[in-house]
Amino acid sequence: MKSAEKPTASKQYYSIGETAVMLKLSASTLRHWERTLGIIRPHKNRRGDRLYTIHDIRKLQTVKRLLHDEGYTLAGVRRVMKQRSAVTQQELRQALLQLRALLEQMAALLDQLFPETKTSSGTSSLPTGDQNHHPPAE
């Protein structure tokens, strides 16, 4: 891989050597960050070779920027990355709660539009699957 190459969506995994060249770091640095930070867990093949995804490489780019450009220590990087992860989980939880509320509103609207399909438990009795499918006659 040439040093100018960037990760692409067409390739799913990158070796530690390819990743090191992309990031202009040594393979031993990547292994050290993996051990000390605990936030990067590359896949490993049967031989035990590390295989990095685009997501892993983006995390490593962030770690490199925090360490080299912004002057964080490894402990500081660990703290920042953990906070970002917590925010992401909180955002995901909020999005799921909003989706649930929207689905409940849709269910209530369907119950209003089709009251004959509403069951005593408040759930729809509409069948699922292909409505036009009939079993063969014997």
Give a description of the structure:
With 138 residues, this protein is mostly helical. It has a single domain (14-113), classed as Multidrug-efflux Transporter Regulator, Chain: A, Domain 2 (Orthogonal Bundle), CATH 1.10.1660. It is 54% helix and 5% strand. It has four helices and three strands, in the order E-H-H-E-E-H-H. It has helices at residues 16-23, 27-37, 54-69, 74-113, and strands at residues 14-15, 43-44, 50-52. The chain has a three-stranded antiparallel sheet. The mean pLDDT is 83.
Question: Can you lay out the helices and strands and say which pair or pack?
Answer:
Elements: E1 14-15, H1 16-23, H2 27-37, E2 43-44, E3 50-52, H3 54-69, H4 74-113
Antiparallel strand pairs: 1-3, 2-3
Please give the CATH class: Mainly Alpha
Please report the distance between the alpha carbons of the first and last residues: 64 Å
SS-based class: mainly alpha
Helix content: 40-55%
Task: Choose one word for the global shape.
Answer: elongated
Instruction: Write down the secondary-structure element order.
Output: EHHEEHH
- Major sheet, described briefly? 3 strands, antiparallel
**Rg result:** 25 Å
In total, the number of strands is 3
Supply the CATH architecture: Orthogonal Bundle
Total domain modules: 1
Tell me what portion of residues adopts beta-strand conformation. 5-15%
Q: Could you list the spans in which at least 5 consecutive residues all have pLDDT below 50?
A: none
